[in-house]
Specification:
By secondary structure, the protein is α/β, with parallel strands linked by helices. Strands 16, 17, 18, 21, 22, 23, 24, 25, 26 and 27 form a 10-stranded mixed sheet that branches. A 9-stranded mixed sheet has the order 14-33-32-31-15-28-30-29-34, sandwiched between helices. Strands 7, 8, 9, 10, 11, 12 and 13 form a 7-stranded mixed sheet that branches. α28 links the parallel β31 and β32. α8 runs parallel beside α31 and α30 packs antiparallel against α31. The longest helix has 40 residues. Catalyzes the hydrolysis of ATP coupled with the transport of calcium.
């Protein structure tokens, strides 16, 4: 399928395309064709042979589209210059394109660097900063370049004794603009780079060739074309099979179904009830084997693939952190503006008072004073805004995403990294995500005694050797390692007492050790049974450039099994075999076979198929050597008759594997003395299979499944430890889904399994009740997954979705974070995802959670540091400006520039570069509603702000008394005044430097230096800050309004600065409860002990509403209703029933006799109880003598019921309700 830009006319049509087809919404003019586009597309959504029959069958579709079943579209349709008519056979090319469109999907236009920069500039914090920067720059330029005389101060370096203060008021505004530019460039360049990486990743998959039959010419693909199917091909468009031979399709990427679906023509499948065969070809599925042709009925954006791609278009939401930071920015802007306005008002009052007390000032001096007041007020607002915050977020994300790329995580959407920090639910696909999407032999039995298991040490419960009572019985299969249970169908097998060993010759061995127990002759026989009786072959995957088996998944599993054991190559075995007859697979016999001529002119029949059928046709079985015994080295294959004991062993093995949802395949053979069998003539079309399939010898029974990816068990375990629940959503059947979920630890006590068709029919309140307990959603459609994600998000969960198939696209897009697979993932999945797992490893999700939490912590560390600095700066600016006679702050504009911009930028870089550690997984995720500031953060912000403010104000106002500096303002004491100001500035800076070290930890751990040696960025940046501060003091001079200070003053600055770390330790030792109580009383946080109000039973709401209406009419007295009284009395009297409550032995005739008015409430009580889920519970019957819980039976799932984990407590209210409701 070709992807290209869309025309303007097409865009309006495609905008209305929905994920699911509703043919009634199609109002397009389909003339001259009888079928509208969505009418045809609806045939595959869902696949419906009956709908096709309503249209008149495949022949009616051929006629309606003007297609010849053998030659395709007519030559008339190929000539664009011809005009069409009313007959579909004569429809023009233009008409066909107008009605059904073209096979082109619109590509998502990539944003240019300028567009990304413009989007970055729309951030609220940056907007506030931009406004503040413009105002500050304008006032600074006016102050410096407005023609006014520069301010002067006394100095010894000038002959006049006066020096001009540097005109640097404009620098602050310019510096803020530079900071904004850095933020925008870093963020947009990161997004642009990720976009380029994504385009490169998908570039090789952009186009797919489509072979069509249309007069032998290559043309644009159109509806009505006949397309060719070949093994290994990805189906590009939706269609209906016309003719084919043994076509098997893998629809796992489109529907999640792992079983191969056989494709047969409409006439053959219209009467079929099997769900394993149909006549529809779904775009995005893969042809495993067979060849044929099919007619295209939906292309481009009308196809299944195209509809999903179109459904992925949508606007992205703000991340939880972005939303909180935006709210914080607005709050800070309001508070800063209020503080600035208040300061302006106070200084203006002071200014007007001075107008009366000092009338000698010139108009220029008055204007200058007014501008100074305005500047200090604006400076206060600028100081209040945390301009380093967006830079901290961007740097943390950029640093994390770079590290994540090295761990095979390509982050397409930068903010998704941060969202993963607090992901509370992961909805994962099964096929290709938890599993390898590679059918594999995982267990089996050679002969009847040699039970082999793939990775036996990790899967000891997959062998029943030596277990006569079947410890792996219905409820104890599928263990993880040593004993994890799952619900399999209850199958009762009669066994002898535990002291006896019925099958004493059974033994277990690892699959890799199989060669040690079978003789060379048996090994060759086993290999030939696999390789010769197979049509699968190896080929290079065009997408991954890896060699893989093409054909039946079962045959591929068997060939891979032989390849793993290093048996003779299948190509060599096939070339050496002299095949005389092939028995193709059929659903009736559930087997396939081949007859070969042996070197001694005898013949051998190899057959494989359903084990429960073929084993009944076996009379003997091969014999294998026990561990410790040496297998025979001659060419003789030892066999033994199958007696009742052996047949019982076979049946027990098949049941055992079936309980684990393994697909069991039996491999058998039979030696023949002549060919063809007596009385059968294959050349005349007679089927020799009935004569061949008897007196067989059983070689092996193999158990096949799609195994877990390596490390998935541990990854799920770590997710649970991190407080992230994992839910499996798959299109596969419930038994397979339950098996995989149990193996990887998703299906746990208290959890439940449900099918998609049942789930989607639940009422809203039922979904809210079920979803928190739902662990496996089987047979789910793309819409079911999307509904699940939407409901989880509505319940306040932060949802991540993983998947690799086309069917995962809508849920990936709807989720807060979508993960797709870089190797096996389809374009739809990648386009919809936020993060691509380059190695297709579910385990990498744990790394994403870890790095996400690292980003969140980095932002919070910086926020804690930034606010403590800014709060201190605002307070001291306000207090000292009001107290100053010249309306000037203790910190000059340039000093504030250093503190507010340079140090914040450095601190952002330092605190944003702490590496992620496994310790981050030892806590639960934050809810969306969780406050941005934790109690620990708030304690530190308060403590550090109070300490820094107290230090600066004490030094400023009491420094003269403490250190003996002059504070008279005279020229001879000017130097001492400047020394004191320098000391205040220096102390403040060192206080914040040590505070940044203190902010490395957000918890109550006192060791703030833990891991500091692993973060070279932090150490280097801290040293740079100290170095620049030393340079400023020594050579800053008039620009920074500082002078050199003595060693004593340096010691004072550093020692007082170290006090910040002492304060940090003290605040960590103070219990959080004290602050929590205070914050709750001040309404700063929500009371954690306050329970949310939840309506436990929706039925009560309805009853309450009805009673309210009744109360308004009858005054609230139910017995006041004449209708109720008459109805009740009449029924009681009619049946001669006296219902009374004897009080103090008073007779019924007494005035004290009381008839209960509560009787009128009986219908309401019953209705309420039914609404709450109550139902009568029968004690038992012949069909269900024990009233067994259907959740323990797999059959319950096939009847649309809910299945709970067998270890769920019997007193569980939810289980009691749902198992009764679904009976």
């Amino acid at each position: 399928m070709s992807k290209g830009q869309q025309t303007k006319d097409d865009k309006s049509d495609d905008a209305a395309v929905k994920l699911h087809v509703n043919a009634s919404e199609d109002i397009a003019d389909a003339a001259p064709f009888p079928f509208k586009p969505l009418q045809l597309a609806a045939l595959l959504d869902p696949k419906s042979v009956s709908k096709l029959g309503e249209l008149g069958g495949a022949s009616a579709v051929f006629d309606g589209l003007g297609t010849d079943p053998h030659r395709g579209l007519s030559a008339h349709s190929l000539d664009p210059s011809l005009e069409g008519g009313k007959d579909p056979l004569k429809a023009s090319l233009a008409d066909r394109k107008r009605v059904y469109g073209t096979n082109v999907l619109p590509t998502r236009p990539s944003k240019s660097l300028l567009q990304l920069m413009w989007l970055a500039l729309k951030d609220k914090i940056l907007i506030i900063l931009s406004i503040a920067a413009l105002v500050s720059l304008a006032l600074g330029l006016y102050e410096d370049l407005g023609g006014q005389q520069p301010r002067q101060f006394s100095c010894d370096s000038s002959p006049t004794g006066k020096c001009n203060e540097p005109q640097v008021d404009w620098v602050e505004g310019l510096a803020i603009m530079i900071a904004i530019l850095i933020v925008v460039l870093v963020g947009s360049l990161n997004d642009w780079q990720k976009e380029r990486q994504f385009r490169v990743l998908n570039e090789k998959k952009e186009d797919r060739g489509v072979k069509v039959i249309r007069d032998g010419k290559e043309q644009d693909v159109l509806v009505g074309d006949l397309a060719v199917l070949e093994p290994g091909e990805i189906v590009p468009c939706d269609g209906i099979l016309v003719q084919g031979h043994n076509i098997q399709c893998d629809e796992s990427s489109a529907t999640g179904e792992t079983h191969a679906i056989k494709k047969i023509p409409y006439e053959a499948c219209k009467d079929s009830e099997s769900d394993k065969e149909d006549c529809f070809l779904i775009s995005g599925s893969k042809v495993l084997e067979g060849t044929g042709t099919y007619i295209l009925i939906a292309i481009g954006s009308k196809s299944s693939y195209g509809r999903i791609m179109m459904a992925l278009q949508g606007d992205t939401e703000n991340t939880p952190l972005q939303a909180k930071l935006n709210a914080l920015a607005e709050l800070i802007a309001k508070l800063g503006s209020a503080a600035g306005g208040f300061l302006f008002a106070v200084l203006m009052i002071k200014f007007f008072v001075q107008l009366g007390t000092n009338p000698d000032r010139t108009p220029g001096e008055k204007a200058s004073n007014f501008v100074d007041i305005l500047i200090i007020a604006i400076t206060l607002i600028v100081v209040a805004v945390p301009e380093g915050l967006p830079l901290a977020v961007t740097l943390a994300l950029a640093f994390a995403t770079k590290r994540m790329t090295g761990q095979n995580l390509l982050v397409r959407v930068l903010s998704s990294c941060e969202i993963m920090a607090n992901a509370s639910v992961i909805c994962t696909d099964k096929t290709g995500t938890l599993t390898q999407n590679l059918m594999t032999v995982v267990a089996g039995s050679v002969g009847i005694h040699g039970k082999f298991v793939r990775h036996l040490d990790d899967n000891k419960t997959r062998t029943n050797a030596g277990d006569e009572r079947g410890k792996q019985d219905p409820n104890q299969d599928l263990e993880k390692g040593e004993g994890e249970k799952s619900n399999a169908p209850s199958i009762v097998v009669t066994e002898p007492p535990p002291t006896e060993r019925k099958h004493k010759d059974d033994f277990s061995l690892d699959q890799s050790e199989l060669n040690t127990s079978i003789s060379p002759a048996l090994r060759q026989l086993f290999n030939e049974a696999i390789c010769v009786n197979s049509t699968a072959f190896e080929d290079k995957n065009k997408d991954t450039n890896e060699i893989e088996f093409v054909g039946s998944k079962t045959e591929g599993a068997l060939l891979r099994f032989a390849q793993t054991l290093e048996w003779e190559d299948y190509r060599t075995v096939r070339e050496a075999a002299d095949v005389v007859h092939m028995v193709p697979f059929s659903s009736e016999r559930k087997a396939m076979g081949v007859v070969v001529r042996l070197s001694d002119n005898r013949y051998r029949f190899y057959v494989k198929g359903a084990s429960e059928i073929l084993t009944k046709l076996c009379a003997t079985h091969v014999v294998v050597a026990k561990p410790g015994e040496t297998p025979s080295q001659d060419d003789h294959i030892e066999t033994k008759d199958i007696d009742d004991l052996a047949r019982d062993n076979i049946q027990r093995t098949i049941i055992f594997y079936a309980n684990q949802s393994l697909r069991t395949i039996a491999l058998c053979y039979r030696d023949l003395t002549a060919w063809p069998p007596h009385g059968v003539n294959p050349e005349a079309g007679e089927d020799p299979y009935p004569e061949l399939a008897k007196d067989l010898t059983l070689i092996a029974i193999t158990g096949i499944e799609d195994p877990l990816r390596p490390g998935v068990r541990d990854a799920v375990e770590e997710c649970v430890k991190a407080g992230v629940s994992v839910k499996m959503c798959t299109g596969d059947n419930v038994l397979t889904a339950r098996s995989i979920a149990a193996q990887c630890g998703i299906f746990t006590p208290g959890g439940l399994i449900m099918e998609g068709p049942v789930f989607r029919e639940l009422a809203e309140h039922e979904m809210k009740e079920i979803i928190p307990r739902l662990q496996v959603l089987a047979r789910s459609s793309p819409r079911d997954k999307q509904i699940l994600v939407e409901n989880l998000k509505a319940m306040g969960e932060i949802v991540a979705v993983t998947g690799d198939g086309t069917n995962d696209g809508p849920a990936l897009k709807t989720a807060n974070v979508g993960f797709s697979m870089g190797i096996a993932g389809t374009e739809v999945a990648k386009e919809a995802s936020d993060i691509i797992l380059m190695d297709d490893n579910f385990v990498s999700i744990v790394s994403a959670i870890m790095w996400g939490r690292c980003v969140n912590d980095a932002v919070r560390k910086f926020l804690q540091f930034q606010l403590s600095v800014n709060i201190t700066a605002v307070i001291i600016t306000f207090v000292t400006a009001v107290a100053s006679g010249s309306e000037s702050s203790v910190l000059s504009a340039v000093q504030l520039l250093w503190v507010n911009i340079i140090m914040d930028t450095f601190a952002a870089l330092a605190l944003a570069t702490d590496p992620a550690t496994r310790d981050l997984l030892n806590r639960k995720p934050d809810r969306k509603t969780a406050p941005l500031f934790t109690i620990d953060m708030s304690k530190q912000i308060i403590g550090q702000s109070v300490y820094s403010t107290a230090v600066v104000l004490v030094l400023h106002f009491a420094g003269n008394a403490i250190f003996g500096y002059g504070h008279k303002g005279d020229s001879e004491n000017r130097h001492d005044e400047e020394v004191l100001k320098t000391l205040v500035f220096n102390t403040f800076v060192f206080t914040q430097i040590f505070n940044s070290i203190n902010c490395r930890r957000l918890d109550r751990n006192l060791n703030v230096f833990k891991g500091i040696l692993l973060n070279w960025y932090f150490m280097i940046i801290t040293l740079i800050e100290v170095g620049i501060q030393i340079l400023i003091v020594f050579i800053g001079g008039p620009a920074f309004q500082v002078v050199e200070i003595t060693g004593r003053d340096w010691a004072i600055s550093i020692i007082v600065g170290l006090g910040a770390m002492v304060v940090g330790a003290i605040m960590r030792l103070i219990p959080n409860g004290i602050f929590e109580v205070a914050f709750v009383k001040l309404k700063l946080i929500r009371d954690p002990n306050e329970l949310p109000t939840v309506n436990w039973n929706p039925a009560l709401d309805k009853v309450r509403e009805n009673l309210t209406i009744f109360q308004n009419i009858r005054g609230g007295r139910l017995r006041g209703s004449s209708f109720v009284m008459k109805s009740r009395s009449a029924q009681l009297e009619q049946n001669n029933i006296q219902l009374y409550v004897p009080l103090l032995n008073i007779s019924p005739g007494s005035d004290y006799f009381h008839r209960p008015s509560l009787l009128a409430m009986v219908p309401t009580i019953i209705a309420t109880s039914v609404g709450a889920g109550w139902a009568a519970h029968p004690t038992g019957s012949l069909s269900d003598p024990a009233s067994a819980d259907p959740s323990h039976s797999s059959a319950a799932l096939w009847e649309g019921r809910v299945q709970f984990h067998p270890d769920t407590s019997q007193s569980d209210a939810t289980m009691a309700k749902w198992t009764q409701e679904r009976r």
